[in-house]
Input
Amino acid sequence: MCTRYMTPDQAAIERYWQLRRDEGNPWRGQREVFPGSLAPFIRAADERERQLVVGQWGLIPWFAKAAKLTYSTHNARVEEITNKASFKQSWQHGRRCIIPAWSFDEPCWETGRNVWWHFRRADGLPWGLAGLWNAWTDPASGEIIQSYTMLTTNADGHPLFARMHKPDPRLPPDQQDKRSVVPIELADVDAWLHGSTEDAQALVRVPAAEAFDAGPDK
Output
């Protein structure tokens, strides 16, 4: 599961994804993002446009009584988004988003201890990572809080991601449920944001190892 990534600055995001800015939702420029941080994400707007908004990394579901949750929602397993209460409404209503990232981090345990690896694109471009979003209304104050989650998919057979995360000694090597984020290519952004659930599901895949510039944190 991803728990840290680096986001591009606002100008770079707007330029690469050809966005209009939500002036009422400014971003203060924090580049290193952790669960609970505020960071930019891209969602669909009217007439097949794209909108840059700022929200909390960690989706607040519609049924939450308070913004601070007692459980983690910063990652969502693709295999569970159709039936898990925290995420299924966002998925069913097409609240899909793109999370801009220059790099994201994963832990490698091949040495027997946690060694953080950075994952960048080999072509030097930013990642657009698949996510879901929600707009939650605080029942006490009426404040609307934007939030999002990052999708992950199984990567047990991937030559790179199968090396990440702490192994579970109770499971065989082919059943570890190693996870990967889901990159969405620039040409597929409109299909992810505006397409049907079937269109979006077809984009859930992990690129070949050659697409990544990955290595230990230095």
